[in-house]
Amino acid sequence: MKKIFLFLLPALLLLTACSESDNSSTEYDNWKARNEAAFIDTLRMATQTIAAAKAQWGENWEQHCDWRTLRSYTLGTGAQATWKDSVAVRVIRTGTGSGTPLYTDTVSVVYVGRLMSTPQTPSGLLFDHSPHVNSLTSGYRPELASPVRFAVGNLVEGFSTALQHMHIGDRWRVFMPADMAYGSRSVGKVIPHSMLVFDLELRAYWRAGTRPDLP
C-alpha cells in the first residue's frame, strides 16, 4: 500500500497543478464579450436609476441620485450616444468647486484604475494608481494618495470625458467601455477589450498658460 501511495502522489500533484493552472487561465476567457456585457449592464442600471430619480424628484433628481451617464466629449452637438461612446459614473462624494476643466486644461487628480471584477479577482485587477503612501492591498484611500498632474487632452477618451464634468473635490467611480479606453490594445496590465473602472478625485485644475498655487 505504501508503494502504491508513493506512485500515485506525483499524479495527484500533477492533477492539482493542472487544475490550478486551468482556473487561472480561464479568468480572461471570452473577455471581450464579458466586458461588453458588464459595461452595458452597468450603463443600463445607471440609466434606470436616473430615470426613477427624475420621475420622483424632477429637476432636483441629482440631489437624490448618485449615478450619472455622460456622452463622449468627441460627439458633435445632437449626435446620438451609444453604449460605446458613453461612460457611467457613481458619485462617491460631491465637491464644492464651481467650474469644470476644459479639454485644453491640466488637472491634479488622485486615482486608481482596475479591470472588471472576476471570480478570481473580485476587486478587479489593479493596473494603475497615483502614488500611495501605504499598501493598496489594505484598500485605496484618497487622503493618503499624492496627486498627479495630467493634460486632459492626453488621456483616454473616457477619462477625459469624465474630467470635463467634474468639480474640484468630486470623487467619482467611472466605468468606461473599451472603446473609450484602450480598445483592442494591450497596455501594461490592461488586457485588450477591457472595460476600465477608475476611482477618481479632482483636486485642482488650471487653464493653459497658467500654473496653480499648489505643490
Short description:
This protein has 215 residues and is α+β, with helices and mostly antiparallel strands.
Provide a descriptive summary of the structure in words.
The chain has 215 residues and is of the alpha+beta class. Helix content is 27%, strand content 22%. The protein has helices at residues 2-25, 31-57, 157-163; strands at residues 67-71, 86-93, 106-114, 126-129, 148-151, 171-176, 196-206.
Layout of helices and strands:
Blueprint: H1 2-25, H2 31-57, E1 67-71, E2 86-93, E3 106-114, E4 126-129, E5 148-151, H3 157-163, E6 171-176, E7 196-206
Antiparallel strand pairs: 1-2, 2-6, 3-4, 3-5, 3-7, 6-7
Secondary-structure element string: HHEEEEEHEE
Derived structural class: alpha+beta
Query: Roughly what is the average pLDDT, rounded to an integer?
Result: 87
Q: Give the tally of β-strands.
A: 7
> What is the CATH class?
Alpha Beta
CATH architecture identity: Roll
Low-confidence stretches: 1-23
What's the helix count?
3
The dominant shape is: globular
What count of domains describes the coordinates?
1
- Rg from Cα: 21 Å
Which percent range describes the beta-strand content?
15-25%
How far the N terminus sits from the C terminus, by CA atoms, comes to 72 Å
- Main beta sheet: 7 strands, antiparallel
User: How helical, in percent, are the residues?
Assistant: 25-40%
Give the CATH topology.
Chitinase A, domain 3
